[in-house]
Amino acid sequence: QIVLVSGHLDSWDVGQGAMDDGGGAFISWEALSLIKDLGLRPKRTLRLVLWTGEEQGGIGAEQYYQLHKENISNFDIVMESDEGTFQPSGLGFTGNAKAREIVKEIMTLLQPINVTDVYDDADGTDIDFWMRDGVPGASLRDDLSKYFWFHHSQGDTMTVQDPNQMNLCAAVWTVVSYVIADMEEMLPR
């Protein structure tokens, strides 16, 4: 059984794509690194996917989906961060009411960093295939007030990334992915 965390590596040919969507790739990698460094071993597999071809119509995600859809019942949740890594506020979530209640309870663990909101609907080109087939999905929600200052521009460089905000985003991704991966049962569908 798999809990999938992800971001995509490709960007437009201007700028470096550090914020869109390098930030999502960074925090996904960091989440798994933190879990490993803490010596935690969840009941389910945590899988990191660094998508390619998102800007070209999600061709990397479609290929991955085609290769793994026969095991769709083993995918517990698919998580994608693709809206920058600014000050986080919570998660967008797509799934049934029972699963939403579980995710809301998990988010209460993040009260110390004031990131507890659960919004309607996860967003993510790379996880859409899975969510359309009923797999619960989550996307990081954060402060988008500066997102379009840099999105697909020459200004999208590493200097956009605030280490403190990225650490908070990684904390959200780590807690949510680990707790779901270590629950007794998969999220209800």
From TrEMBL:
- What cellular component GO annotations does this protein have? endoplasmic reticulum; extracellular space; Golgi apparatus; lysosome
Taxonomy, top ranks, is: Eukaryota, Metazoa, Chordata, Craniata, Vertebrata
Question: Which keywords describe this protein according to UniProt?
Answer: Carboxypeptidase, Endoplasmic reticulum, Glycoprotein, Golgi apparatus, Hydrolase, Lysosome, Metal-binding, Metalloprotease, Protease, Secreted, Signal, Zinc, Zymogen
Task: Give the Gene Ontology MF terms in alphabetical order.
Answer: carboxypeptidase activity; metal ion binding; metallodipeptidase activity
Q: Which PANTHER family match?
A: CARBOXYPEPTIDASE Q, PROTEASE FAMILY M28 PLASMA GLUTAMATE CARBOXYPEPTIDASE-RELATED
Q: How does it assemble?
A: Homodimer. The monomeric form is inactive while the homodimer is active.
Protease listed as a keyword: yes
Q: Where in the cell is it found?
A: Endoplasmic reticulum; Golgi apparatus; Lysosome; Secreted
> The Peptidase M28 domain covers which part of the protein?
2-173
**GO:BP terms for this protein?**
peptide catabolic process; proteolysis; thyroid hormone generation
Task: Name a Pfam family for this protein.
Answer: Peptidase_M28
State the family it belongs to. Belongs to the peptidase M28 family.
| Keyword Cell membrane among UniProt keywords | no
Q: What is this protein called?
A: Carboxypeptidase Q
